[in-house]
């Protein structure tokens, strides 16, 4: 029934103030009001409709994306959403988020602009940023090649300095050096920040960034020497196919010398290479920025899936009917709770860890401006590790939510297949998750090895300073409620991470060649890195379900014994019972519109069955009663069977 709240009985059970929780989730009252206003604005605009997306072919889908991006930009300007003429303002960023369709603009604003801001000199910023802010040029981030993505130092594209003309010659010497993957490159970008090996007088100075114009600003055709196109359909139907991930090769393309991004190092008119007194890793700065953004976005994607699965689990009933009464809501099954509630808790935990990481990133940015590079390794390890941890958990969590919705979760109208397909590449882009965990492991092993030299660990590794105590630690939990004390949980996680790191460091020391040892022990190192990253995010329910999931680690490192493991599980069951009456209210606190959720199963009013039924009839296959192809392919079969039957 329209207008009836089928979930009202669930909402009435809530034991907390949902409106207050909406503000906690949003970050502040101001943020809440902004999100609320912009999400409604997007939901009520027919151009931003997305319920028809799954049935569109690639070309229509792409054109639809261009239309939405252009309309979003128009809205930003018309409504003066941002004080400045830029889509980097929070209002414009939210508008893009609620439009919910990946587009070239993500890479323009999310990587091209930040690359110039972070690696361009003041002069370069003054020249390029106003053009980019007004979208008079559209840029992408062209780093990955057909042959190399993770190994940035292995890139093959060359930028050779020509002192005669004061230019760089950008060239793709091999097939594997073709740029491959950059979003926005395939069909839209006029410019790119291209990462290439700098060659001066035959000497290779490693990978640097260059601003290169790709297409004419008049007719959009590729400039001479440039071959460019889309790399083809990707996983899922609509999903990430709204994006024109591209291929690009250069045949001796010339650009002026001043288009090398020169904040970190410079090439003079005479062809002299000058490296500023800053770490070369600043060339990787854009990746650090985007990894932090990806962590902040993980809670959004996971919370959408959890919202759908929670509401639907309260609507869906199976078994348990007595005397013709109602069947049991599937959310009341303990197995459903043990799969769903840790994800609900994770979404909240990731929301808060995202805020913390933004603080850390802002802090390191301020320090870098003051030429203090001391916290850069910590910022790199935290952004890399948390990007890996949160995207893996979110991708797995979305898929779990699909299963939690049974068969109907497999329908596109549940919103879950597309959410999964659009999200899962986050485990790969901006750094493959395993490759990033190995970076964290390097940081941890280094921290452990420096303890003997008296180096005091700081930031998220500060717990290592208490190594002796953590190596002696054994949990003193005696009853289930003891696991409710935050300190008890935290210490167990600290001891587990510390012991796993120390074990890795000890095993590494047995190798005469440390690099060989690192390769050999990589799987253990990744597990130690995960333990460290989980320590960063632990909080009550979330922590206990993790402890239960990784019980083997906690017992084998001697932090807790099997009895204490069972007590944690007992406490977890108690906590699930406490979450149960609040579950629907906890997902209401995300304040998502039905437009944004894009899911019949997750509708706010819980009116699932009539709407599912209605939606099925909208499928293009139901446009005709007898399908196209009947006469050619089905009828002859049927007739033949009839003939055979007569024989
Ligand atoms: C409206 C706005 C919308 C905004 C939306 C934004 C969100 C957009 C979302 C989605 C769009 C999709 C975007 C996808 C884009 C991409 O994928 S771009 C390509 C990304 N590529 C990668 O991430 C490549 C991964 N590989 C690497 O990062 C590196 O190659 C490596 C770190 C794995 C190894 O680098 P290498 O130079 O070989 O380093 P090592 O020898 O291992 O280490 C040397 C030292 O450098 C330190 N280090 C490494 N990286 C960094 C860093 N980023 N920052 C600081 N320091 C770093 C490392 O720890 C070593 O230190 P020590 O010598 O002290 O041990
Ligand atoms: C949707 C999408 C959008 C993208 N957008 C952009 C973009 O805008 N710009 C851009 O430049 N790039 C972009 N990329 C490329 C992306 O950054 C790379 O794909 C990513 O960094 C992974 O690199 P790779 O593909 O080389 O993976 P590989 O490194 O080839 O990974 C293959 C396997 O090898 C393993 N592996 C690799 N190295 C190691 C190691 N040292 N130790 C152990 N295992 C290892 C990995 O774990 C993985 O299992 C995008 C990719 C995708 C999927």
From TrEMBL:
Gene3D superfamilies: Acyl-CoA dehydrogenase/oxidase, N-terminal domain, Butyryl-CoA Dehydrogenase, subunit A, domain 2, Butyryl-CoA Dehydrogenase, subunit A, domain 3. Residues 539-639 form the Acyl-CoA oxidase C-terminal domain. One of its GO terms (biological process) is long-chain fatty acid metabolic process. GO terms for molecular function: acyl-CoA oxidase activity; FAD binding; fatty acid binding. Residues 284-445 form the Acyl-CoA oxidase C-alpha1 domain. Pfam families: ACOX, ACOX_C_alpha1, Acyl-CoA_ox_N. GO terms for cellular component: peroxisome. Belongs to the acyl-CoA oxidase family. FAD binds at residues 144, 183. Its cofactor is FAD. This is Acyl-coenzyme A oxidase. Keywords: FAD, Fatty acid metabolism, Flavoprotein, Lipid metabolism, Oxidoreductase, Peroxisome.
């Amino acid at each position: 029934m329209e207008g009836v709240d089928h979930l009202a009985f669930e909402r009435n059970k809530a034991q907390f103030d949902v409106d207050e929780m909406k503000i906690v989730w949003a970050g502040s009252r101001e943020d809440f009001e902004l999100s609320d206003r912009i999400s409604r604005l997007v939901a009520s605009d027919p151009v931003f409709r997305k319920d028809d997306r799954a049935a569109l072919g690639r070309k229509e889908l792409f054109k639809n994306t261009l239309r939405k991006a252009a309309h979003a930009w128009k809205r930003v300007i018309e409504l003066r959403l941002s004080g400045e003429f830029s889509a980097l303002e929070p209002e414009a960023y939210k508008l893009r988020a609620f439009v919910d369709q990946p587009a070239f603009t993500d890479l323009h604003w999310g990587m091209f602009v930040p690359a110039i801001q972070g690696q361009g000199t003041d002069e370069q910023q003054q020249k390029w940023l106003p053009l980019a802010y007004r979208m008079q040029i559209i840029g992408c981030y062209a780093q990955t090649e057909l042959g190399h993505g993770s190994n940035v130092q292995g890139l093959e594209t060359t930028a050779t300095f020509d002192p005669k003309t004061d230019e760089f010659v950008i060239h793709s010497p091999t097939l594997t050096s073709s740029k491959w993957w950059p979003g926005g490159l395939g069909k839209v970008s006029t410019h790119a920040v291209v990462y290439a090996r700098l060659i001066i007088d035959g000497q290779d100075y490693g990978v640097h960034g260059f601003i290169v114009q790709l297409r004419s600003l008049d007719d959009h055709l590729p400039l001479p020497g440039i071959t460019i196109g889309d790399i083809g359909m990707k996983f899922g139907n609509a999903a990430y196919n709204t994006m024109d991930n591209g291929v690009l090769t250069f045949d001796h393309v010339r650009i002026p010398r001043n288009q090398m991004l020169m904040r970190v190092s410079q090439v003079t008119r005479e062809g002299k290479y000058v490296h500023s007194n800053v770490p070369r890793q600043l060339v990787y700065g854009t990746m650090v920025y985007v990894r932090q953004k990806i962590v902040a976005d993980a809670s959004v994607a996971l919370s959408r899936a959890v919202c759908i699965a929670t509401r639907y689990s309260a609507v869906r009933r199976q078994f348990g009917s007595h005397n013709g009464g109602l069947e049991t809501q599937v959310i009341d099954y303990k197995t459903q709770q043990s799969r769903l509630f840790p994800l609900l808790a994770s979404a909240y935990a990731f929301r808060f860890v995202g805020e913390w990481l933004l603080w850390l990133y802002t802090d390191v940015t301020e320090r870098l401006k003051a030429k203090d590079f001391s916290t850069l390794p910590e910022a790199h390890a935290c952004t890399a590790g948390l990007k890996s941890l949160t995207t893996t958990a979110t991708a797995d969590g979305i898929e779990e939510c699909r299963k939690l919705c049974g068969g109907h979760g497999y329908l596109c109208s549940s919103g879950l297949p597309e959410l999964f397909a659009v999200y899962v590449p986050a485990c790969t882009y901006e750094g493959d998750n395993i490759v990033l965990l190995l970076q964290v492991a390097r940081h941890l092993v280094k921290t452990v090895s420096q303890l003997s030299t008296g180096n005091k660990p700081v930031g998220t590794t500060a717990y290592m300073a208490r190594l002796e105590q953590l190596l002696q630690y054994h949990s003193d939990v005696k009853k289930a409620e003891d696991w409710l004390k935050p300190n008890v949980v935290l210490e167990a996680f600290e001891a587990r991470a510390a012991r796993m790191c120390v074990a890795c460091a000890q095993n590494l020391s047995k190798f005469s060649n440390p690099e060989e040892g690192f390769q050999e022990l990589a799987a253990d190192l990744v597990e130690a890195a995960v333990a460290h990253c989980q320590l960063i995010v632990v909080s009550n329910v979330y922590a206990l379900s993790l402890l239960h999931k990784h019980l083997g680690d906690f017992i084998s490192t001697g932090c807790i014994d099997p009895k204490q493991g069972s007590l944690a599980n007992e406490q977890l069951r108690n906590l699930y019972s406490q979450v149960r009456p609040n579950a629907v209210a906890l997902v209401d606190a995300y304040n998502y519109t039905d437009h944004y959720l894009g899911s019949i199963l997750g509708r706010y009013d819980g009116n699932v069955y009539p709407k599912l039924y209605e939606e099925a009839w909208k499928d293009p296959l139901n446009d005709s009663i007898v399908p196209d192809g009947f006469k050619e392919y089905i009828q002859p079969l049927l007739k033949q069977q009839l003939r055979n039957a007569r024989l």
